[in-house]
Amino acid sequence: MKIATYNVNGIKARLPRLIEWLTETQPDVVCLQELKSSDETLPIKDVEAAGYGGVWHGQKGFNGVAILARGAAPVEVQRGLEGDPEDVQSRYIEADVFGIRVAGIYLPNGNPQPGPKFDYKLAWMERLRKRAQALLAEEVPALIAGDFNVIPNDDDIYKPTAMADDALMQPESRAAYRRLLGDGWTDALRRRYPAGGVWTYWDYQAGAWQRDAGFRIDHLLLSPALADRLTDAGVDKDHRGREKASDHAATWIRLHDHRD
């Protein structure tokens, strides 16, 4: 089974690239982020024509998350995180897919920091942790996948000093991410590439793609039951170099079937 996360940076603007990627790589489950589209204007029929059912949580102009399944319809469990009734941003969706509980997230960026946006990021991460702890307590095979907007380690970026003041690299952001791992989640790409040096994002500015000046912010965290099934992980880097591509590359894992 192949499961991927992909920040498309505007699903309508990137629709040809998304359909192309789905057709070429045929992942079984996909978490999408940054749809930048309301529920009413999402190109759901185009995705269904490519062979995928989905649950969607859109928002006009920014944010937005979805979970897709090849040849199946995910069963929605929850949208949004508890803990802040005034939070209306579309950043979390959870569904049951092929016997796995999948949580798709688009974690707040947090810039500029310090300030209210950074405070919101840290509070959101604490709310996510509470939901993640509940998933672990249920002892179901579970996955949290998406754009975490956290660069966990210095070897997850081409040049640590380049983003030293950014919210993505602040000690508080990293500590919140480590607390998730400490609760029992496994960073799949880190397990596959323990020495780091693997990027999932390249900015459009300053020739970042051409210089391979990237960093890793798209993560797939596995519950213990799924971590035992991990066989491979990687990044579909070549798709980032295509015309009018997202600034993220799809990041994926492979799991052996639980019946094996």
Automatic annotation (TrEMBL):
Its EC number is 3.1.11.2. The record marks 218 as: Important for catalytic activity. One of its GO terms (molecular function) is double-stranded DNA 3'-5' DNA exonuclease activity. Gene3D superfamilies: Endonuclease/exonuclease/phosphatase. The active site is at residues 106, 147, 248. Mg(2+) binds at residues 7, 34, 147, 149, 247-248. Residues 4-248 form the Endonuclease/exonuclease/phosphatase domain. The record marks 149 as: Transition state stabilizer. The keyword Transmembrane helix does not apply. The record marks 248 as: Interaction with DNA substrate. Probably binds two magnesium or manganese ions per subunit. Its cofactor is Mg(2+); Mn(2+). Keywords: Hydrolase, Magnesium, Manganese, Metal-binding. InterPro entries: AP_endonuc_1, AP_endonuclease_F1_BS, Endo/exonu/phosph_ase_sf, Endo/exonuclease/phosphatase, ExoIII-like. It holds the Pfam family Exo_endo_phos. The keyword Zinc-finger does not apply. It comes from the Bacteria. GO terms for biological process: DNA repair. NCBIfam families: exoDNase_III, xth. Belongs to the DNA repair enzymes AP/ExoA family. This is Exodeoxyribonuclease III. It comes from Sphingomonas lacunae.
